[in-house]
Write a structure and sequence with these properties.
Layout (H helix, E strand, L loop, with lengths): L9 E3 L4 H8 L7 E2 L14 H19 L4 E11 L2 E2 L6 H11 L3 E11 L5 E12 L4 H10 L19 E5 L2 H5 L3 H10 L6
Parallel strand pairs: 1-2, 1-3
Antiparallel strand pairs: 3-4, 3-5, 5-6, 6-7
Subcellular location: Cytoplasm
Protein name: dTTP/UTP pyrophosphatase
Main location: cytoplasm
C-alpha cells in the first residue's frame, strides 16, 4: 500500500511500536511521534471502559497542546475482568497474577481512540473485544513469563505474540487487542480530513 499523503500532518500521541505498525496498515507510514506523559491511575470506582476512554482523550489533549496545527491520534487499551482493571505488567509478579486471573475465563479488552482536529474537534471511538483464554498450566505461565512478552502490556500479555496460543475464542477487533482498532481509527481519521484509503 502506498504511503498516505496527509495534510494537515498526523501526530501519533504514543511511543508504542505496535501502534505505529498498525497505523502503517492504513497506509500511514511516517506519523510524527509525540508521546505524552499523563497520570494513568484509575479514579476511585472507575470502570475499565470509562478508564480507557478518559485516558485516550487525555493523551490526545496533552499532545494537541504541543502540536495544535496537527491532527492528533491517541489511544489507550485496558484489560478488564468484570469491574476490575488489570494493570500494565511491569514486573514478573504482576504478569503472573494477571495470567492466573485470566486462565480459563473470558475477559474484555477496551481499546479507546481519540482524534483531535486542528480546529479543536474531539472525536472518540471505543472497540470492545471479548477474549477467552484456555486454562493455563503453571508451566505455561512460567514459560510465557520467561519469554518477556508481557512487559508493559495491559493484562500481562501480548495477543500478537505467543499468548495468541492461549486464546480459544475472540469476538471483536484483533487489532484493538493489540492496541489500535483499525476500523475505528480509519473512520475517525477520515472524519478529521485525512486522506486514508
Amino acid at each position: 500500500m502506498p504511503p498516505v499523503s496527509a495534510s494537515p500532518a498526523l501526530v501519533l500521541a504514543s511511543a508504542s511500536p505496535r501502534r505505529r505498525e498498525l497505523l502503517a496498515r492504513l497506509g500511514v507510514t511516517e506519523p510524527r511521534i509525540l508521546a505524552t506523559d499523563i497520570d494513568e491511575s484509575a479514579l476511585p470506582g472507575e470502570l475499565p471502559r470509562a478508564h480507557a476512554v478518559r485516558l485516550a482523550a487525555g493523551k490526545a489533549r496533552a499532545a494537541a497542546a504541543l502540536a495544535p496545527e496537527a491532527v492528533i491520534l491517541a489511544g489507550d487499551t485496558v484489560v478488564g475482568v468484570g469491574r476490575r482493571i488489570l494493570p500494565k505488567a511491569e514486573d514478573e509478579a504482576t504478569a503472573r497474577k494477571c495470567l492466573a486471573l485470566l486462565s480459563g475465563r473470558r475477559h474484555r479488552v477496551f481499546s479507546a481512540i481519540a482524534v483531535i482536529s486542528p480546529d479543536g474537534t474531539l472525536r472518540e471511538a471505543l472497540s470492545e473485544t471479548i477474549v477467552r483464554f484456555k486454562r493455563l498450566e503453571q508451566a505455561e505461565i512460567e514459560a510465557y513469563i520467561a519469554g518477556g512478552e508481557w512487559h508493559g502490556k495491559a493484562g500481562g500479555y501480548a495477543i500478537q505474540g505467543s499468548a495468541e496460543g492461549f486464546c480459544t475464542w475472540l469476538a471483536g477487533s484483533h487489532s484493538g487487542v493489540v492496541g489500535l482498532p483499525l476500523y475505528e481509527t480509519r473512520r475517525l481519521l477520515r472524519a478529521a480530513g485525512l486522506s486514508i484509503a
